[in-house]
Queue: 4 jobs
Job 1
Amino acid sequence: MKIAIDVDDVLADFNNHFAQFINTHFGYSVSSQEFFSFRYEESLGCTTKKAYEMVDTFFASPDFAEIAPLIGAVEGVEELKKHHELIVITARQERIAQETLDFLTRHFGVFYSEVVFTGQSREPESRKTKAQACKERGVDYLIEDHFDYAKQCADLGIKVLMIDVPWNQHAKELPPEIRRVTGWQEIVAILNSAQ
């Protein structure tokens, strides 16, 4: 099968590291478990401009390069690559492409046949969506944490394993193509039994 994998909060433990960063550098006192929305301005009670400023400052800091893999991701990728074609499809922007590739290589090696940067996280109207990228590449499954991206894929008939996190809890009724999962061990079990 062809499986697309998101980066932030699927491969990379982004929100935990971002929360630590804004606590230290912007005076917050939050954990990633308090991010009830994918939009930081909603979870943090700040403006969109301020949220972008904090994210951009994080990207430019040495802390960004220190993001660890999500628990179980390294082992999960190692297992999946034995039986499946893996590609990375991220909403990250091209401007942090090198940092993203460095993260992937440092922690996972080159396990993917392609890395696609949609830029959808910051430029939703100007780029292809993850769903379009998955459809064009014949993806069977997407591993994702963002409900909107998962729903767009589901609408095109692409199956999604959506990691259960606070920022996707608003989605109570899921289409049949979306299945909530608790982590990488469950992801591997489902995908290896689906082949």
Job 2
Amino acid sequence: MARFMRGLTYSPARMSRDHETNKTTQRRFAFRRRNWSLAMKIFSYIVIVVILIQVQNGNAALIHHYTFDSDASDSTGTADGTLVGGASVSGGQLVLDGVSDYVQFGSFIVPTSGDYSVSFFAKSNSVQMLYTEMISQGSSGGGFFIGQTQGPGNIRVSDFWINTGVAYPLDLLQHHFAVTVGASLTSLYIDGSFVASSALSVYSHPTAGTNTRLGKQFNPFAEYFHGTLDDVRIYNHALPSNEVLNIYRGVPEPPSNLALLGPSPSSALVLQE
């Protein structure tokens, strides 16, 4: 028994080492608990900030998107278009002959109230001397359209901003066009750069008239566009300038799901002391 007891006897040095080991272990556990608490707080703050941003933006979203992969289908919403008069799709672009081709929709795809934005790429295949429209809806006197005056002339945006003072590009190259409409300001962008604005809101107010078209004016006018259209987007809010630039540069749409924020706190790394 004495021999057994001697085997259980700790020397002062060993007891000191064990005591320090226990203290170190306790400190590590305490540090990990603090680290976990900090991770939870950071994650909670991120969620709160994202929720506040979403609340501030309301239902701001891309509501219609046309990439012309095979036809004029809406890849975001349900407003598909119909190819009319020989209009075709080739290489991810809508091809229009300037004589009888256009796309017809069954409704107004540009919002008729509130803020909105219209964005697309266009390439003219010839210098057209008459009025031409790349997108239109409604009727004369209060309709919406983006096109050019005759001449060839300047870009025009609806009956409310009939002459922007900005020359329509005549180089027969592809360009990006965007119009953003807010409560007191309408802005025009070309190739990601701001080029003009109007203090009047170019609100699209038609409650009657011709449903949205691509490549042709609303009835009873023709004003066909000769060229190609690509990546047509309709938003239900006024895009800020940096988002317009991102579209021009081909930056993908940002995710809107909270699940895409990143790893959850449960998978966060625990820092070592």
Job 3
Amino acid sequence: MISITLHINKVRAGSKPARGGFSSGSKPAREETPFVRAGCLPACFVVIIMLWLGGLTHIVCAQSLLPDTICGQTGERSYFVSGWSNSTYTWTVEGGLLLPPGNTESITVDWTGVPPGNYTITVVEHSADGCSGDPYSDIVHIFPAPEISFSLCTPITSRDAIPYSLRGGIPLNGIYSGTGVQSGIFYPGQVPPIQDTVIIWYYYTNSFGCPDADSAILQLHPAANHTCGNPFTDVRDGTDYSTVQLGNRCWMAENLNYGTHISSTTHHMNNCQPEKYCYDETTANCTNFGGLYQWDELMDYQDVDTVQGLCPPGWHISTETEWQELITLFQDAAHAGTALKEGGSSGFQALLSGFWAAPGLWSYGASDTTLNSALFWTSSSTSTGKALAHGMNSVVNETGYTTSVSTYSSSWSNALPVRCVKD
């Protein structure tokens, strides 16, 4: 006698049916949505057909999982279903390469070289007694991985340098990490004394939620053993600078000369490459008089009043407060110029070597026959697009109008020299 009993069990939302599964990776417990096989009802019903033939029982429904998501061309990934024992499977993979044997409940797909897009994986289960289920398909989303590059804008520093913002990761708005890094700021003093290099990581996640990372090496030099009044050597390029103690500050007694000489027809760019102009497009003028810098380049694109900028590690761009202290040491702004200029009593040795005025005028250099002048940047901005600068001049063949130190609110686009102050 043969009897057929049809049992229809409704699966509650969030519960797990008896068998089945289609997923990538490992096989954790799943909350799944039933799919239809031959003889099964759709939606959230599991149909159990019991054929009383010597007690043989088949469970003929399985389930699906959420679609797979891949970031970039990640190579091989595994997928599986949980069906009835002794079943075989027919898999169809769109886009990717189905690796052998490809007819069991678990498969491996190679997605190498497959461009971003949506691709379908279809599986059909065939039971040992010849019953085939309906095809079940699911989607594999391949999203583009982020394309990042990372080269530190400040790859060399020293332990006595003030903390500074890390830059150089592209695209912008990623996350920096590493020893001594907090919220994107590097604190040299937090690095253990035994380390002379630090690995800095840059992490970025694109709009598809796909992450990537890259790293760069930061060189950390010991704090400089320097006494003000003696020459100071920039660890970045080996340039030596004269220094002078003025009040309680140690100043450079010559203009900063750091970076690559570029033509004044090219605007300084935020490209992690320190750049400078040389007066009258002559490289020797940088050697003799220092570089000329547009303000945002000099500041390393940070509008902060006390910042290292392009100054050597352990030094910073002079602030307005420090300039006012300097001027006061030599009476007042009307008279301090005499002491601060080259040959003056202060030892500051301000060179009246000119500057570059946007949009392209070399002004009042040493070869000018009417006026020799210099303007020195401070790190103190006055408004968007302008910062304070201090000027000294000498009227050729005149002596009565050259004693002062003037103050200007100068456009960031002008290129001026700078004096650095020791931290």
Job 4
Amino acid sequence: MSEQSSPEFEREKWHAEHELRNREHKLRTRWLTTIVVAVGAAVVTAIGNIVLEASKAAETRLLEEDKAEATRILEMIKTGDAEKAANNLKFLVDAGLISNDRRRARIKTFLDARGTRSRTRTASCRYS
């Protein structure tokens, strides 16, 4: 009988070991999957933070440039003399020191309108 039970015992032993290996493999796979997902999430988060910080830095730089430009314009018109302020604004526009296209266009429009009024006033003063 021991001879007959021995092959059965070996078969059961083999099945038990096989089951154990399958369970170990599933556990390793589950842990590995969890680790891969965690590392992937960390990488995605890091890339997102890098992009966000780069975007914030660019926006901050643009904001600071805009503030500096506004300060430069304000300093140029603080002269107390409208003609000198207009000349200073014209200098800023001509020198390309105003980078904001919309602001530059509005200042040019202002200077053109002012120039037309100044010439009209000058002409009317001459004929009076």
